[in-house]
Hints:
Elements: H1 3-49, E1 74-79, E2 86-92, E3 99-103, H2 114-120, E4 125-129, H3 148-161, E5 167-172, H4 174-185, E6 190-196, H5 201-210, H6 213-217, H7 220-223, H8 229-247, H9 258-268, H10 275-282, E7 299-304, H11 313-319, E8 327-332, H12 339-342, H13 344-359
Amino acid sequence: MPELVVTALLAPSRLTLKLLRAFMWSLVFAAALVAAAVYGCIAFTHVLCRPRRGCCGRPRSTPPACLSDPTLGEHCFLTLKSSGLRLHYVSAGHGNGPLMLFLHGFPENWFSWRYQLWEFQSRFHVVAVDLRGYGSSDAPQDVDCYTMDLLMTDIQDVILGLGYSKCILVAHDWGALLAWNFSIYYPSLVERMVIVSAAPMSVYQDYSIRHIGQFFRSNYVFLFQLPWLPEKLLSMSDFQILKTTLTHRKRGIPHLTPNELEAFLYDFSQPGGLTGPLNYYRNLFRNFPLEPQELATPTLLLWGAKDTYFDQGLVGAISSRFVPGRLEAHILPGMGHWIPQSNPREMHEYMWAFLRDLLD
């Protein structure tokens, strides 16, 4: 068929897609302005209630001692083959079994996996990375350095760079978004997955369109689409919004000690420390609309019944995309969003049962 005819036939579809994207971006930025007003009021309220802290975050000069706890593992760096970036990771149990690779969420870093590093290093080579832009890993400032394709290539380079051909991928929050995509496009590198508190982006997209309440649960996503302003608001009153996120009595991490809180705030308090992590969000809508994708990697999915950020109904939506028999999903009563830190014992029980046959 002549190229001109093909172009003519596809023109209406292309125009419709462009109009749909333009409409989507108009909604996103309208929501971003509303979110900016709301979070601006919250941030300035924190400043007024704690005037001595001022309008800026206090840079931490010394990392808290818990970040160098030798029982968690050895601190190492890996230069990625594809990008040349250096990623920081903590490793323990080398030679004890298969690679178990941990991917953290926001606002966290490798330290969010401390309980799992202790638990599984006896039977696995456990590795918790600081993702690109986080912690001691390299942090390019350009938004285009945080596309999904580049982030998935980072995971591939970590697995191969550590000398493995496959891994057990354990991921939470933003790390889980990466893991879902990675299992679709690099299935040979993932033997099993353990996912906590996150849905694939295509599932999240379709579910949110049908359940408007999910947009309100994830309202911060719209704020983070804006340049520079989110960094400013999150750092005001010495990062009080982040502190509240992590320590809130109902929505935060129970029993998080001041030292453990500083383990997360230390990196964000460094110059430019928030820009890399927020650039993940600034690329979220880049490929909208997303096509539904079939999920086939054997996966353990853990979901807190009291997760304030993601609706329980997403679990059913995820299940509907899976090849039968490949998903083991559990909604955990009384638990929230931060299961790896808030309920490690229960998480470990499910993981050991899920992985038992690999160790026989």
